[in-house]
């Protein structure tokens, strides 16, 4: 009986030691093999509480890209384009002197002014319709100042307005008059009526031709 009891006790102690050691080994292994957090997982770059080290690692490149895109909103040439965050892409195709006047036009052939028509190309690359009524232009002489006055030539007129569906491209007209003393080089600023006061207004540089 004494031998059997001792053997039984020994077996119980061995089982307890094995169980204890196995549990420690499993816990250690689990902690060593735990997957690290993905670099792009749940990092809110706009948060005020994000850690500085995390921001530098995950957000610095993104901020640099945004900064580069802001630079392209100025110094653009006719034919180049600018895309707003909602996907509306705009470019100034040309500014051409107007010579085909009719009795229905809101302007007359004035020898002291350059009457011209600006062609704007707009493409909705976003996922929602865009109201073109919110788009307008501001045109200045690029040499020695002067602001262009808005007018309208009825022939082939396609003024800014209406709705532009996703995936659709449209060409719109914008008619203006600038005194000849300010020259033919102009800057066309394309504006949008928006509640977002940080929205860029791209500036396109070119010349009235014809």
Can you describe what's shown?
With 210 residues, this protein is an alpha+beta fold. The chain has three helices and eleven strands; from the N terminus they run αααβββββββββββ. It has helices spanning 2-32, 52-58, 60-71, and strands spanning 76-77, 81-83, 88-97, 113-124, 130-131, 135-141, 149-151, 163-164, 169-179, 185-192, 203-209. Strands 1, 2, 3, 4, 6, 7, 9, 10 and 11 form a nine-stranded mixed sheet that branches. A hairpin with a 4-residue loop joins strand 2 and strand 3. The longest helix has 31 residues, at 2-32. The chain is globular and about 65 Å long. Residues 1-11, 22-40 and 63-71 have low confidence and may be disordered.
Radius of gyration, in angstroms, nearest whole number: 34 Å
Distance between the termini: 120 Å
H/E element sequence: HHHEEEEEEEEEEE
Mean pLDDT: 80
- Which percent range fits the helix content? 10-25%
Structural class computed from helices and strand pairing: alpha+beta
The tally of beta strands, per DSSP, is: 11
Biggest sheet overview: 9 strands, mixed
Number of discrete helical segments: 3
Amount of beta strand: 25-35%
Question: Globular, elongated, flat, extended or rod-shaped: what is the shape?
Answer: globular
Low-confidence stretches at least 5 residues in length (pLDDT < 50)? Answer: 1-11, 22-40, 63-71
């Amino acid at each position: 009986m004494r031998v059997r009891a001792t053997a039984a006790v020994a077996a119980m102690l061995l089982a307890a030691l094995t169980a204890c050691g196995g549990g420690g080994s499993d816990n250690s292994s689990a902690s060593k093999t735990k997957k690290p957090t993905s670099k792009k997982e749940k990092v809110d770059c706009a948060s005020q509480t994000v850690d500085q080290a995390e921001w530098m690692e995950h957000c610095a490149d993104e901020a640099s890209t945004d900064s580069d895109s802001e630079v392209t909103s100025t110094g653009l040439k006719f034919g180049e384009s600018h895309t707003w965050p909602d996907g509306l892409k705009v470019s100034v195709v040309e500014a051409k002197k107007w010579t085909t006047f009719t009795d229905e036009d809101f302007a007359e052939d004035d020898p002291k002014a350059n009457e011209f028509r600006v062609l704007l190309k707009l493409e909705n690359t976003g996922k929602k319709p865009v109201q073109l009524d919110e788009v307008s232009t501001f045109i200045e002489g690029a040499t020695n100042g002067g602001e262009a006055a808005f007018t309208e030539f009825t022939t082939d007129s396609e003024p800014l307005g209406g709705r532009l569906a996703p995936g659709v491209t449209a060409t719109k007209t914008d008619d203006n008059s600038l005194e000849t003393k300010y020259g033919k080089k102009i800057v066309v600023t394309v504006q949008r009526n928006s509640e977002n006061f940080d929205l860029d207004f791209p500036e396109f540089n070119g010349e009235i031709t014809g």
